[in-house]
Automatic annotation (TrEMBL):
Places the protein is found: Membrane
Family indicated by similarity: Belongs to the transpeptidase family.
Keyword Iron-sulfur on entry: no
Record-annotated Penicillin-binding protein dimerisation domain positions: 157-318
Lineage of producing organism: Bacteria, Bacillati, Bacillota, Bacilli, Bacillales
Span of domain Penicillin-binding protein transpeptidase: 357-658
Catalytic activity reported: Preferential cleavage: (Ac)2-L-Lys-D-Ala-|-D-Ala. Also transpeptidation of peptidyl-alanyl moieties that are N-acyl substituents of D-alanine
Principal location listed in the UniProt entry: membrane
InterPro entries tied to this protein: Beta-lactam/transpept, Beta-lactam/transpept-like, MecA_N, NTF2-like_dom_sf, PBP_dimer, PBP_dimer_sf, PCN-bd_Tpept
Pathway(s) the chain acts in: Cell wall biogenesis; peptidoglycan biosynthesis
Broad enzyme group: hydrolase
Entry protein name: serine-type D-Ala-D-Ala carboxypeptidase
Length: 673
């Protein structure tokens, strides 16, 4: 009687809703049942089940099972449809007290859509005025495959991460076999603390971390306890580890970076996703055990590299093959093929020999980025396989800042910027080819408004100075005078045409090059200083390299690219100078190296003609007579013009200034000719 009382409100509701007569029909009841089901109201569905169903399945188990399955499988867009009974079948059902409704269930799941057909039988239970229709429920209503038992399984198939390749298909980041180094506790020998100390030193792990792994609840004396993954390239470390009692390994797949430090900043590394990262991402995009790009290209192209996990929903029964209910195939990550030349990148990085600086190498005719170097750097393998806190502290406290990505940063370009000023002046006709101006002495000031400030040049001129002579001799006064002559508005407009104060059109995030702290040059001294790459002007090594492309492409400033399948020779800004003006600057850049009074005589060698421009950026503070200097050189082969290197080395004031950098670039161009 308990159950009949509980159903009275439902019966009354249906009786009120019935329009043909005052008897409840199986159609009315199944309509109501399906409504509850579509809305996932499992309590109400249970209350509409037959006595035999409720005796077999407790309400709590029934409701929890439905909820858990629907939640675990991310069931959404549930839709149950069926054909209504004809009038004849309705009469027969009312007479016999039983009715059948074939129905179709459609749903979206984590593994894709599932559709199935099943049949519901309704019977009358109760007597006289308390009689009503109830559904004979069984697990087949969830999925027909589990009607007679079975376990629903959910399997995730992890995708294989795409690899990062250079222009020659050499791997910059790949999936390879690595050594998962660990300990069998019972075999640590007679002095386990001594063994753990040696393991700690070799793996860069703290004793506390090792003990934490060994103290896990599942650990047994004869079980393998993993500690850290080590790449095959760390052969010396591995050989020393194998000598320690109790140390063993399991071969697993891991992310490996063959070029180590030379590509650390550019390629980046991967690591386990953190709780903070999970909170910031779309729900379900990652799980706690997933690997994610942390820096560099690994982070930039994460969506392309990671792929999509496969999902399989199955029903398992003893002594039977699994039944697949739904399957979403795994989608492995895509490879990212770059324009980078890994060997060139490594040569440039090694040329720094630990000194701080940055360099960019491009193909000046196509805009392809061949190298992006930041020195010193970190080893992506060390970062990816787990770096100790002491080692991280060592990197963070290093005065050369190996964790700073210098190729994304901006710097004062010094005199390497003078060809840009020359181009701006030639374009707005404030500089006329062959027209010289008289400059006397080594210093110049433009009157009382400048106070005691004077522009200084390195050498005096013999006769009038024109733009070619000024570029060859790197005459600060000539460019300062010309910038003041053309005025702030024209000069700033020219700088903007060269990409200053604009987003840099490159997939890899590079800082925007700036004209000054406020974007203006209203102060005449600042205008003068900017003309020769000092003042407050800042640009990246890559932007500086691209700023030379108009001289080699009849006035067109190219866009840099880093993906191998990107369109080549894309134009960022058109016709900044004429073809004749571009030729004039090209010839001047050759004479910077080849002429007796050129500033890059160190690049004048017999077996390779080189063109370029030197630059020394002084970093002294106001009131100081001297300070640190960054030595710059932008150089390229005069004939082939298939590579251009823009290089800066920090603190060259005691090493010959920009001449030191000239030597480095010259050796690199010789090595790749």
């Amino acid at each position: 009687m308990k159950k009949i009382i509980a159903l009275i409100p439902i019966v009354l509701l249906v009786l009120v809703a019935a329009c043909s007569n005052d008897k409840v029909t199986p159609q009315d009841r199944f309509d109501q049942y399906v409504k509850h089901w579509n809305e996932q109201e499992f309590n109400e569905m249970y209350n509409m089940s037959t006595t035999t169903s409720t005796e077999k399945y407790a309400k709590e188990d029934y409701v929890e099972r439905y909820k858990n399955i629907y939640e675990d499988l991310n069931i959404d867009n549930l839709n149950i449809t069926y054909d209504k009974l004809s009038e004849e079948k309705m009469e027969t059902a009312m007479e016999k007290g039983t009715a059948q409704f074939p129905f179709t269930v459609e749903m979206e799941t984590i593994a894709g859509p599932i559709t199935f057909d099943y049949k519901a039988t309704l019977i009358v239970e109760g007597e006289e005025e308390n009689a009503n229709w109830f559904v004979k429920w069984d697990p087949g209503f969830i999925f027909p495959a589990i009607k007679d038992g079975g376990e629903i399984g959910l399997s995730n198939i992890k995708p294989e991460r795409g690899e990062i390749l250079d222009r020659n298909q050499l791997p910059l980041a790949l999936n390879d076999t690595v050594h998962n180094v660990g300990i069998v506790p019972g075999k640590l020998g007679s002095n386990p603390e001594k063994a753990k100390q040696k393991i700690s030193d070799l793996l860069g792990m703290s004793i506390e971390s090792i003990n934490k792994n060994l103290d896990a609840g599942w650990v047994e004396p004869d079980l393998f306890v993993p500690l850290k993954k080590v790449p095959k390239s760390a052969e010396q470390t591995l050989n020393q580890l194998w000598e320690v009692s109790g140390v063993t390994e399991r071969k697993v797949t891991g992310r490996v970076y063959p070029y180590g430090e030379s590509l650390g900043h550019l390629v980046g590394f991967t690591g386990p996703v953190t709780a903070e990262e999970l909170e910031e991402m779309d729900s379900g995009a990652y799980s706690a055990n997933d690997i994610i790009g942390k820096r560099g290209l690994e982070l930039l192209y994460e969506d392309k590299l990671r792929g999509e996990a496969g999902v399989e929903i199955t029903v398992s029964k003893e002594n039977e093959e699994d039944t697949i209910l739904a399957e979403k195939p795994v989608k492995n990550g895509e490879d990212v093929v770059t324009t980078i030349d890994a060997d060139l990148q490594m040569k440039i990085y090694e040329s720094y020999d630990g000194k701080a600086g940055t360099a960019a190498a491009i193909h000046p005719k196509t805009g392809e980025t061949l190298a992006l170097v930041s020195s010193p750097s970190f080893n992506s393998n060390e970062m990816g396989f787990g770096i100790s806190q002491s080692r991280r502290d060592e990197l963070q406290n290093n005065p050369k800042q190996p964790l700073l990505n210098r190729f994304t940063s901006t710097y004062a370009p010094g005199s390497t910027f003078k060809p840009v000023t020359a181009a701006i002046g030639l374009n707005n006709e404030s500089i006329i080819p062959g027209e010289g101006i008289e400059i006397n002495g080594l210093t110049w000031s433009n009157g009382e408004g400048w106070g005691n400030y004077q522009v200084r040049r390195v050498s005096e001129s013999n006769g009038p100075v024109d733009v070619t002579n000024a570029l060859v001799r790197s005459d600060n006064i000539y460019f300062a005078k010309k910038a003041v002559e053309m005025g702030s508005e024209k000069y700033v407009n020219g700088l903007q045409q060269f990409g200053f104060a604009k987003d840099f059109p490159f997939e890899y995030p590079i800082e925007t090059s700036t004209i000054s702290s406020n974007g203006k040059l209203n102060d005449e001294v600042l205008l003068a200083d900017t003309s020769y790459g000092q003042g407050e002007i800042q640009m990246s090594a890559l932007h500086l390299a691209m700023a030379y492309t108009p001289f080699l492409n009849k006035g067109n400033l190219l866009k840099p690219t880093i993906l191998a399948d990107a369109e080549k020779s894309q134009v960022w800004q058109e016709k900044l100078i004429t073809g004749e003006q571009a030729t004039l600057i090209q010839e001047a850049l050759r004479n910077v190296v080849a002429a007796p009074n050129g500033t890059a005589k160190g690049a004048h060698i017999d077996d390779l003609a080189i063109s370029g421009k030197t630059g020394t950026a002084e970093l002294k503070k106001s009131g100081e007579e001297s300070g640190p200097e960054n030595g710059w050189f932008v150089g390229y082969p005069t004939k082939n013009q298939d590579i251009l290197i823009s290089m800066m080395i920090e603190n060259t004031e005691k090493q010959g200034g920009s001449a030191f950098t000239v030597g480095k670039v010259t050796e690199l161009l010789k090595a790749v000719k």
